[in-house]
Write a structure and sequence with these properties.
264 residues, 7 helices, 15 strands, alpha/beta, 27% strand
């Protein structure tokens, strides 16, 4: 057996014996899945809707299946570079053309739970990353940086999760200075969040606005939003698999995000 084949065999054996845990980082997708409401003059995303085709009945006696409809950026989802104006001109920047090897990468999990509990508008900064690195080592090139807030666990109701006020949503996210730092200084593959989007809720007021979308996708990087269970990942050492549907010219996609974690 070659070295690479042995590595794959060890991986499967580890999963089967529990030496490697598989953690589901995906929220259930259903009619009550929270979505962002854009200003009424703009286009709106569809809520998730499941329509039964047949259920072992006269419509199909041997099968159960459904139609569904929703927006590309609903629930736990992947953002492709072509989702944002800053990333629209890259080649292979949409869900059907991104090289599949990009969907598998190491993860660095930054614990911001206490900060987000005190302040729903908490912003993760380069200084927080540098403090994390003093304990866990430098963020490796090509890694996901995942912002753990336990937001979905602590706010299970849609209104709490979106946390919309008269002046917009109030949810934690990256500081405007963090994104260029991660892109240029750490060369990450992307940024992930446990809220409805990769940017903070008040990011439309920032300079530049929506810095995660603008900066990450402007550097041909990716986003993961709507994650959950980052509490089950170690700060470093996990591998994330986040594969969007292969939608032709898709700007993103709901996806089943899983992590491989060492140890029982």
């Amino acid at each position: 057996m070659t070295g690479s084949a042995s590595t794959l065999a060890d991986l499967i054996a580890g999963i089967q014996t529990g030496g490697i845990r598989v953690v589901d980082l995906t929220q259930p997708l259903h009619a009550s899945t929270p979505i962002l409401q854009l200003p009424p003059e703009m286009g709106q995303t569809w809520k998730f809707e499941l329509q039964e085709i047949s259920n072992f009945d006269s419509r199909g006696p041997l099968w159960y299946w459904n139609n569904f409809k929703t927006g590309e950026h609903t629930g736990t989802h992947f953002d492709a570079p072509g989702h944002w104006i800053s990333g629209k001109d890259y080649p292979n920047n949409l869900t059907d053309t991104i090289p599949p090897a990009k969907f598998i990468a190491p993860a660095c999990v930054i614990d911001c739970v206490k900060e987000a509990e005190k302040n729903p508008d908490f912003l993760l900064s380069p200084d927080h990353i540098k403090a994390w690195e003093k304990t866990h080592g430098r963020i490796p090139k090509g890694a996901w940086v995942l912002m753990r807030t336990d937001w979905a666990l602590k706010r299970p109701q849609p209104d709490e999760y979106i946390n919309a006020q008269a002046d917009g949503c109030h949810t934690p996210g990256p500081h405007p200075e963090l994104v260029p730092f991660l892109v240029k200084e750490r060369e990450v593959i992307g940024f992930g969040n446990e809220t409805v989007g990769t940017d903070a809720g008040q990011a439309f007021t920032f300079d530049p606005p929506f810095p995660c979308h603008s900066g990450m996708h402007g550097a041909n990087k990716y986003g993961l939003a709507g994650l959950i269970h980052l509490d089950q990942l170690p700060p470093a050492g996990a591998i994330v698999i986040a594969a969007p549907l292969k939608i032709v010219r898709g700007s993103g996609s709901p996806c089943r995000v899983i992590a491989l974690v060492p140890g029982k």
